[in-house]
Amino acid sequence: MRILSVASEAYPLVKTGGLADVVGALPAALSPHGIATTTLLPGYPAMAAATRNGRVAHHWPDLLGVEARLIEARIGEHPLLVLDAPELFARPGGPYADADGRDWGDNWRRFAALSRAAADLAAGTIAGHRFDVMHAHDWQAGLAPVYARALGAEAKTVVTVHNIAFQGSYDAGIFPALGLPASDWSIDGVEYYGQVGFLKAGLNAADAITTVSPTYAREILRPEFGMGLEGLIATRSRQGALHGIVNGIDPAVWSPDADTALPARYAIETLGRRAANRAAVEQAFGLDPASGPIFTVVSRLTWQKGMDVLVETIDHLVARGGRLALLGSGDAALEYAFLSAAERHRGRVGVRIGYDEELSHLLQGGADAILIPSRFEPCGLTQLYGLAYGCVPVVARTGGLADTVIDANEAALAAGVATGIVHDGVTPGVLIHAIDRTVALYAEPNRWRMLQRSGMQADFSWSRSGQLYARLYRDLTGSS
């Protein structure tokens, strides 16, 4: 079976968040199930090395108003197709925004072109490429099923919602430039409250919808999580097409016994070696040595992630003997608030604004607990990294966090199955209580070591998730 995976980013070529990790890991996860995955990505400058010796598989003189080529390359051991459209993608800055963080004004055209190219592939109009299923990720690929339908593609279509809060809604005036039939300007097409809705259109057109955890699949049926799309998803036809498949992590990238970013590698049997990594975290973040736990945060600094609430609890965290090492960026006001806390608590709070892949590995391998107080979290990957690295997750009970972390209540501790601390709701009082529970458990070395070992023994590789995706593809295509 041949799958076309369409996305705006994929690790290790280009990454802004967890989407890239998922898209990058899927081909290897599906391969053991007899599924060959080809990934289609935009031709950002970061793709230059990957495409340098690639074969041009197709040429569009006019792809939504720009010239474009399709270049064959590789992502690891798996096929990669790159949409080489310099007018759209060969520019400085990030995949979605310029160097100052402002969204590119033509993002609608950039990702509509990606979707149209994907649909041409799904429809079999490009020689040498045939696919049974086209799997589109998030709003950036949301129009792919719509274009595929317009082209009469036989390939089945899947849309995965990694975060329903990001929907890709644009002014209705762009519709004529999309090259879709006039009939697609309707509630059954791309129209969404008088705008063009990329994600809405994809959810409506796809043969199947997946989210990145079972709990999030249930949550987005409710107004407080569905972000206005709950009505569409909750219809009988769409709800039956909805599947929750939790993300996995790639052990080739995230394994403490083989991680070259760690000063000291370790396994369940050698947890004591984490002490060297802990010392490296202290040095990197300017933390004074102390006996209390090091809490870490590796996150976007946003309201969704509960970072505004965490800011309010830092004084208490320090007062209880904890220290904080934070790596992230986001809202300017939150960045300032965390930097102010670091100034206020020198030697107890360290903050790095930005993102650093190697440093994120060090934090998982050296900090004691990772704080993830998200108001909603479709899946989350940092808690999975924490489990794998013995960095105990302290998480809100929502989405994938609820699906992957077992709370250290007395029954779970007695049974030896607890893997973290789970709190209900995201308020300063609730988070303070969770921090207190963490500090108390850390003061009991035997129990703390049990939490670490239970988390490290859990299987959050792509093995199970890959099997579920393979089953979904086969159900859609009627193959055995």
Automatic annotation (TrEMBL):
Pfam families: Glyco_transf_5 (PF08323), Glycos_transf_1 (PF00534). GO terms for molecular function: alpha-1,4-glucan glucosyltransferase (ADP-glucose donor) activity. ADP-alpha-D-glucose binds at residue 15. Its EC number is 2.4.1.21. SUPFAM superfamilies: UDP-Glycosyltransferase/glycogen phosphorylase (SSF53756). Residues 2-234 form the Starch synthase catalytic domain. Transmembrane segments: none annotated. Pathway: Glycan biosynthesis; glycogen biosynthesis. It catalyses: [(1->4)-alpha-D-glucosyl](n) + ADP-alpha-D-glucose = [(1->4)-alpha-D-glucosyl](n+1) + ADP + H(+). Synthesizes alpha-1,4-glucan chains using ADP-glucose. PANTHER family: ALPHA AMYLASE DOMAIN-CONTAINING PROTEIN, GRANULE-BOUND STARCH SYNTHASE 1, CHLOROPLASTIC/AMYLOPLASTIC. This is Glycogen synthase. The lineage of its organism: Bacteria, Pseudomonadati, Pseudomonadota, Alphaproteobacteria, Sphingomonadales.
